[in-house]
Design a protein that fits this description.
single chain; about 300 residues; alpha/beta; five-stranded parallel sheet; globular
Amino acid sequence: MKVLIVGSGGREHTLAWKIHQSPHLTQLYCAPGNPGTAQLGDNIPIAASDLEGLLEFSQQNQIDLTIVGPEAPLVNGIVDRYEAVGLKVAGPSQNAAQLEGSKVFAKDFMQRHKIPTAHYQTYSSTSAAELALCRGEYKFPLVVKADGLAAGKGVLICQNLTESLDAVSLIMEKREFGKAGDRVVIEEFLEGEELSFMVFTDGTRILPMVPSQDHKTIYEEDMGPNTGGMGAYSVDWILDQKIRRQVMKEIIEATIQGMASDGHPFAGVLYAGLMLTSDGPKVLEFNVRFGDPETQVILTRLNSD
């Protein structure tokens, strides 16, 4: 079986390391890969953003399965392109990938399907967001999020009015995250234990992975701005069986069923970033692929192929 892994990070190195162990594997390619993946397969000089180049390579080399690591190719429709020519690819369609590609889409989806999450409002202009903040419509701390993809850095926790106004300006006026800042979501700050929970799904069946925790802030003691991830660990006790069942029923199953009923069936890896609050688990955000760095600690625990 010929496998192509798309991406170049630690997540993709871990995917390559795990897939390399499979007795079904005959050839492993990584595009563009990194020095770690080069020890396990062949690195191909095609950027993860070059969807046409990836598709052409897969067709010419008769790739049996393509696994997409980063979110941007999924949000930009790589799965739709592959499936249109009959190639197998692991990941959601472009429509389903909106769960990560748009915070507004995800929050509206959760509200519509009664999936527990923080209270929020969406704003399409700086003036409207600033007016709501200055009117005192929110309690502090609060969270300001860029709507689109921002490499894990578009979420700003604000302790007071000045910080929240600066966050809105940074996203919508200074365009720190580019087009991701066309809209912002302002939501309540959730307190509790944060964790990552990922599942495999074909749109109907769901296979849960083990829980993990990703530490996002750049400094120790949860201080400083968020990053794409400073490290992670995985142990079973961070999610007991009772809460795990609640997460599966109220969040994961509700999301898979909701996406199907909305006409956007979800297949691939669904990642729910959760906060275990005093009112129960709530969704902070959805990702539509393996987490980075969580994959590094989750796949090392996987005993099966």
